[in-house]
Amino acid sequence: MFSGIIMNLGEISGFDEKKSLLSIKSEIKDINLGDSISCSGVCLTVSEINKNILNFHLSSETIQKTNLLKYKTGDLINIEKSLKVGDEINGHFVFGHVDGLSQVKKIKKLTDSWVFELNTDSDIMRFLSPKCSISLDGISLTVNNVLENSFSLSIIPYTWENTSLKNSREGDYLNTEIDMLARYVFRALNK
Length: 191
What we know:
Layout: E1 8-16, E2 21-25, E3 36-39, E4 42-50, E5 53-57, H1 60-65, E6 76-81, E7 100-109, E8 114-119, H2 122-125, E9 133-136, E10 139-146, E11 150-155, H3 157-162, E12 173-178, H4 180-189
């Protein structure tokens, strides 16, 4: 489990297609084999460590359901270690279980922030409401507005500068995880 507060960026150092092995260069400390790491919102298990290169085996499900293969060598990726009991939770509970992808429709620069408008499918839209939490590429964010097939949110300068969002372009796809509380409430009310 993660908080969605990104404190580290990694750099893609390669992908071995035969082994389905993703390699990320990172200065993150105290990582061990078997640790769970959020890599742009995808919970992956460290399978090999070679100095400051972390290797993760990707399942076919992960390859099909996430944006991890869009990255090229040298691209930045959001990295977060899993929470420990007693850690402060600054964002919201993020599980690293991607529900789908949302496409960046528009990025608008305002004086003090950036507004992202994203398209997504109905399986994600039904859980969204204004002011709900959402995770995009592992970042804990708050939804501003919800329309029929899209939603918008604001990115403050700190988040812009310290996450991979600064490299986002219109048309990009972002890993999307809905808030678990919303999922459970929705399910309970539908029973």
